[in-house]
């Protein structure tokens, strides 16, 4: 997920997406311990997407950047 995509979403959409990403990360970690054929690069992508969403939510909370309407 690109930062432009994250910034274009509303706070409620970001929170929903954050929940989905955290669930996916949990599932990926669980599968990596039980199976050997998982994609290890996907864990990295999901972790970075979670960080992007958290960063944008925090920026909006403290007022560094407002929500950009498109």
Characterise this structure.
The chain is mostly helical. It has one domain: Helix Hairpins, CATH 1.10.287. Helices cover 74% and strands 0% of the residues. The protein has helices at residues 3-7, 11-34, 40-62. Helix 2 (11-34) packs antiparallel against helix 3 (40-62). It is elongated, with a radius of gyration of 14 Å. The two termini are 17 Å apart.
- Gyration radius from CA atoms, angstroms: 14 Å
On the 0-100 scale, what is the average pLDDT? 89
Identify the CATH architecture.
Orthogonal Bundle
Net shape: elongated
Structural class: mainly alpha
CATH class category: Mainly Alpha
* Continuous helix count: 3
Assembly state here?
Answer: single chain
**CATH domain fold name:** Helix Hairpins
User: How many strand segments?
Assistant: 0
Number of domains as seen in the coordinates: 1
Helical percentage? over 70%
What ranges have pLDDT less than 50 throughout 5 or more consecutive residues?
none
DSSP strand content: under 5%
Give a short account of the largest sheet. Answer: none
Q: Calculate the terminal CA-CA distance, rounded to whole Å.
A: 17 Å
Feature tags:
70 residues; Helix Hairpins; 0% strand; elongated
Compact overview of the structure:
The chain contains 3 helices and no strands. It has 70 residues and is mainly alpha-helical. It has a single domain (3-62), classed as Helix Hairpins.
Topology:
Layout (H helix, E strand, L loop, with lengths): L2 H5 L3 H24 L5 H23 L8
Helix pairs in contact: 2-3
